[in-house]
């Protein structure tokens, strides 16, 4: 389920299907339309807010951090730390080194 080139939408769709949940069921839990969820799953739209990413993660029982990564966003708690540029750059370098090993 977790291939190297997976998109946000593809990952959501794969997890949802693995849990045998319908788009309609998930959309109802997220308080969004099934069409909006379909658009997300087909990478036609991005999640509109960090809160939607968190709610998707909770609903599908997956990592909000990984979803934020797939969505191209930095997790909110990292943003809230208000890191200076040097500290942020060091963290990104460490992240890159850690992920290159995999």
From TrEMBL:
Coiled coil: none annotated. Keywords: DNA-binding. GO terms for cellular component: cytosol. One of its GO terms (molecular function) is DNA binding. Pfam families: HTH_3. Residues 12-67 form the HTH cro/C1-type domain. This is Helix-turn-helix transcriptional regulator, XRE family. It comes from Geotalea daltonii (strain DSM 22248 / JCM 15807 / FRC-32) (Geobacter daltonii).
């Amino acid at each position: 389920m977790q291939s190297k080139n997976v998109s946000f939408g593809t990952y959501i769709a794969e997890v949802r299907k693995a849990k045998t949940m319908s788009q309609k069921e998930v959309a109802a839990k997220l308080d969004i339309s099934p069409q909006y969820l379909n658009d997300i799953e087909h990478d036609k739209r991005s999640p509109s807010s960090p809160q939607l990413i968190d709610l998707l993660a909770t609903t599908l029982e997956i990592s909000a951090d990984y979803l934020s990564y797939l969505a191209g966003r930095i997790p909110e708690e990292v943003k809230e730390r208000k890191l200076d540029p040097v500290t942020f750059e060091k963290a990104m370098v460490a992240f890159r080194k850690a992920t290159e090993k995999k």
